[in-house]
Amino acid sequence: MTETKRDVFEKLLSEYVDDELRIDGLVYEPDQHIGELDREYFTNSYAAALPDDLPVVSKDVSNTMINYRFLWWKEFLDKAYDNELIGDEDINYKVRSESAEVARAWILGVWRVEETGEVVKLEEEG
Length: 126
Fold this sequence. Notes:
This protein is mostly helical. The chain has helices spanning 5-16, 36-48, 59-67, 73-81, 91-97, 99-108; strands spanning 22-23, 26-27, 56-57, 110-113, 119-121.
């Protein structure tokens, strides 16, 4: 699933709030009430959705993170700072320069690729 919490919110808003009820940017509660099944659907969808503020890393760094997914995030960054990552000649520098986003991405297990907007989930091979 690559749906963000904002996507779920927008879906709920468009489903239950008629554009005619919007006045000067304010949204007024519609006459119909959300049914129990709909409430459960949106609650579950929202809970399962990705955060809106996913870390963003470059494509080269993303590919390197995937290649080294078997490491712990600190080991990965240590290798970058020791110039031990294998890839193009600048990959260690790129990882170091994006280290804050790399750490967030690794801990969350998901990030967005800067050049493509693709959402990548870090999963170990099983």
